Amino acid sequence: ASKPTLPSSYTLPEVWAGDPSSMGGTFGAVNQPTAGARFVAPLPVGKKPLQLYSLGTPNGQKVTIMLYECLLDDKFDSWEINIGQLHQFSSGFVDVNPNSKIPALTDADGPGGNNVNVFETGSILLYLAEKTGKFIPTDPVKRIECMNWLMWNMGTAPYLGQFGHFYKYAPVHIEYGVDRYAMEAKRIVDVLDHLLENRQFIVGEEVTIADFAIFPWVVCLLRGYNAGAFLKLDSYTHVKAWCDRMMSRPNVRRGMQHSYGKWDPNK
Other C-beta atoms within 10 Å of 93: how many? Predict the structure, then answer.
């Protein structure tokens, strides 16, 4: 049986041949169904060994929190990749991250003294944890648990992003989209609330990269999407207490508020 369509004039084609520029919404025209650079522009490179190319989104905040918590203030330069202006599709950025997503990191002092590119937030957090020996448990059992929750965030954060898309950024409010992802967002926060009932942090009594990965996305539901009342986030009391503990850490606050160096790829 045929399904209703939205808009009613839409007919599901045999083969998709949509026009991304006609999608509308805040980010409708940003992505295309192809990969690769769209224009030639080398990335800026500062004098410090670590070069961070990112933005103050939840995924970007994960990394700046980690850098400050590891006391690497004097070891990194940061450059703003303005995704609204398509900086992520420059040839320089694509060379570092072929997936054209922030954040991306280069380390001139990588293993064996080699320059290495690191992308995907879980990979960056794990790389910095192993490089510094900080915020990853040394106990093998605790390390496994830490990795479980780090990977959990890699899998669940996109659902929170999809909630934000349908709740805030889509050109029209679609009941099915809002309901589907609101339900999943609440389920995700409820998983955290149960976990944090009898522990201070995600893996126990000490903060880890799992906390740094998950925290900015919870804050985004509140401050980025302004969905606290809609999702009744105050009812998740253990998550709220954990957020307060995280925000009480000075370097977490610094990471959340980090300012990037400006880059104009047209110059």
Answer: 26
